[in-house]
Amino acid sequence: MLGCLSMGLLTHLRSELTSHLCQLMTALDSSTDYVLTIHQLLRGAFMLLHLARNISSGCRLALVNGNLSKALVFEPDRKGSLQNEGGATANARAANPSNEPQIHATEISLENTLLLDAVQKVRGDQRRRRDPRSN
């Protein structure tokens, strides 16, 4: 039974997408500082999205403060990332993300933003799951 199961999983575990995901997790685990971790996460997310859907898209990371008034948004340097990743024809076979962080950090106000709406929706859903009688 175990042999049959392992043969069925073999095609999924040997996929290129799984390989890149494992490489990303290894790179994140071995990161020496926060900036490098964020850089590798954003670059890895771009590569994984490109592999999974063959679509070049931008990836951002936002850290929201506790009272939902501001967020710190990290995004890759578009000039550097387009050259390194090949723009729309990204080389998805690039093994490891660059070790030189090329990211921009911007503090934004969350008032009247889609990000605030999304965060409030997620928080509301979490509260409803904790207390189903509140509906």
Which features does this protein show?
three-stranded antiparallel β-sheet, 135 residues, single chain, 5 helices, extended
Walk me through this protein's architecture.
The protein is an alpha+beta fold and 135 residues long. The protein has one domain. Helices cover 53% and strands 13% of the residues. It is built from 5 helices and 3 strands. The chain has a 3-stranded antiparallel sheet. α2 runs antiparallel to α3. The protein is extended. The protein starts with a helix and ends in a 5-residue tail after the last helix.
Q: How would a textbook summarize the main sheet? A: 3 strands, antiparallel
Helix content: 40-55%
The termini sit apart by: 45 Å
| Helical/strand content category | alpha+beta
What is the strand arrangement across the widest sheet? Answer: 1-2-3
